[in-house]
Amino acid sequence: MPSPIVVEGHWQELAEAVQDAVVRMEKDGIVPRIWNGDHTVWKQNPREISNRLGWLQAPWTMQDRMAELEAFAREVQGSGFEKVVLLGMGGSSLAPEVLSRMFSARDGFPTLTVLDSTHPDAITRVRASLDLSKTLFIVATKSGGTVETLSLFKYFYNQVADCRGARNAGAHFCAITDPQSGLEALARSLGFRKIFLNDPHVGGRYSALTLFGLVPAALVGIDGRSILERAQGMVEACRQSGASPGDGNPGLWLGAFLGAGALQGRDKATVITDPLFANFGDWVEQLIAESTGKEGKGIVPVVNEPLGHPGVYGRDRLFITVSVPAACASGVGSALETDLSKGAFPFVCLRAKDPYDVGSLFFLWEFATVVAGHLLGIHPFDQPDVESAKVQAKKMLAAYRESGALPQVAATLQWRNVTVIGEATGSTPREILASFVDAAPHEGYVGLQAYVAPSPTMDAALRALRKAIRDRTTRAVTVGYGPRFLHSTGQLHKGDAGKGVFVQITDEPTTDVPIPEDPGRETSRVTFGALIAAQALGDREALLAAGRPVLRLHLVGDVPQTLHALAQDL
Ligand SMILES: O=P(O)(O)OC[C@H]1O[C@](O)(CO)[C@@H](O)[C@@H]1O
Description:
alpha/beta, Rossmann fold, 3 domains, six-stranded mixed sheet, five-stranded mixed sheet, 20 strands, 16% strand, globular, binds 6-O-phosphono-beta-D-fructofuranose
């Protein structure tokens, strides 16, 4: 059976290892065992495995829910909502973001904004853009307890209650969560317009093709049925045991490529996407990083990276391009594509037909990730190291509640508008940054963790700094906005082999926003500014405790300008 997505492999020197991995997995019956829900594919203990395999059936089971989703979308349209704002983190927000960016806004349907930042400037910007009387909020959290999501909910609930009256506020909210979560109870008590209860046997990062992806998609008029149909084609392809290049089980191939590559030291899986799939990389990043980055192992996803000439890439890279047909040869092209095909790097090209193939791609990557997880011998469904940062952030907040201030960390250098914190060599921020990233281990990586408000200007500045560091060091450089990355690459940063070094970028929000203690109550003991600062401090503690080097650059004033200046000087 030909794959619904063309998977072209140029394995180069990995060819034998990939082939061996496929043959070994065939012999061990890995594919049928995955489909039979056999937890021993990964671990002897079924904990968080046997009850995390619902995504394998989702493309079929979700079909039965589509009529309900479409009816809800009509109801929302009919009620005059012009905007939908999704509040959620990680697996609860990344797939809706991919879908809403891929498909252009449909006439007569609301538009979607995803808010997964707790930076006060990001919140006030979104708030200022809304006519609350015409806005519906989706509160999306599997666990029902994620602090960022619940804090955003409490803030916007009070905003709506102020504008529409407490009795009408609930009608502006719907929830997507697991049955019996804290959010379900809260949503019932506040009279939410709708509560969608997802299959609890699906983990957050595997939930794109469940209610978490499909409800927001339906609300903005995306044809979820077509997306599911494409995914079903991939489900069938991933049931096959046989695999030969360009044919057979594409999930097995891609997983073998990622897993065998990592075992051979090519653990920087660089994903290059066509503009059509612009945000797909962010979704893949969470899937790979949170699934594989643990137990001292891991695959480092490198996404949204500016292309460079082959000399800037280390021997630890492999590449995967995701594109529509014409682009595979040219669109993501440039010198890199030519050099990849000349044999410099192992690479796989995934060719989709059109945007609806995103359904196939979601499933393909999910399957490939658990196959790679099997090869690495890790548990692809848990995230044990996310907790350490949460515990530290809670400690910081407890201190804040008690004393009204967060614990201070001593500055190493104060230089114009930059405060440097951390062990440092050099007398300017530029020198310190340069020596810090130069000291990244051979075939290690640099993680830029930006606790600032996302914007296109900030994206461009971070991109410039990222490129400058990569070109200087030939190390892979990843970028994530905080606290969003804590729910994506945060697990890998603390759980992998420890070859990452981390640069925290923090700033001073222009305003601060209080987080209500409870929805409907004005009292507040913590602000969003304190929360994001506590999370940065907490993750710093967790990284240091795990033996990871951390440098903090605290910037005052024009952050993008300072980042550009640092990049230029590097
Ligand atoms: O959907 P929830 O429970 O709010 O979780 C959001 C994200 O946080 C994590 O649980 C931990 O980072 C992710 O796995 C998940 O996608």
